[in-house]
């Protein structure tokens, strides 16, 4: 492996680990400092969005505002921001507060399976064998998570944990699918930056929570720094740079360390506990990301070989 790729692996892992640190920090701020999650979500989106837009402007100039020249694309950006980023962030924070960073992050990783089901229902796209296995694993893994700590008992599992966790996965699915054309047309930084900024402004209007109501000390500041700066700006840019170096497939596989990171930090610093059944469920859901990535890589290789053979025959 070349040095260029080694650095790509390292910074991709760094981005995923920092996402896990951010999740554990949200749990700390909510459960140990009584922070208002609506305030935290709003501050995270506005601050990260504003800094990302400023950074994009320094790199690309006024061209970052081109998306607003089209009414259709502007509406698409608003949908991406509100129903993708804002929905994902708020529901993710809520599920963390109820179930801890590890379980909340794993539930969010149900998004790839949701996308597969959506493509089947919406466009009739039949899933491959790998995708079908992933959907089954995701379902069984979720059932196992519901038995974390109390045996396989649905009655003992807080329903709102599942509701917020699944809504978080829906948010991830929305912001994974909806902005594809916008990203290709206008670039990643402007779309993500404006998406976060717009969703933060909408959150501020809807929630109208100017106060954090938190118990402020040095650890509260550190937690906010982890969530807003390390877990958003640094992690996002590290992951993107890493993917640019090693490719999207390898990047998506390495990103599966995020829930492991979140679970570890939650266990090490916040006292989260996991039963064997819960750990098996987490492993199953994380495995779906790896299986889907490998399956896509095989599909890409088959398509390339098919085109090559066709060219040779012609």
Automatic annotation (TrEMBL):
What compartments host this protein? Membrane
Q: Which InterPro entries match?
A: AA-Vitamin_Transporters, EamA_dom, EmrE-like
Q: What are the entry keywords?
A: Membrane, Transmembrane, Transmembrane helix
Q: Which residues form a coiled coil?
A: none
Record domain EamA: where? 7-145, 161-293
Does the entry feature the keyword Ribosomal protein, yes or no? no
Q: What is its main location?
A: membrane
Topology with respect to the bilayer: Multi-pass membrane protein
Q: Does the keyword Transmembrane apply?
A: yes
Family listed: Belongs to the EamA transporter family.
Q: What is this protein called?
A: EamA family transporter
Natural source organism: Veillonella parvula (Staphylococcus parvulus)
Recall the taxonomic lineage recorded for the source organism.
Bacteria, Bacillati, Bacillota, Negativicutes, Veillonellales
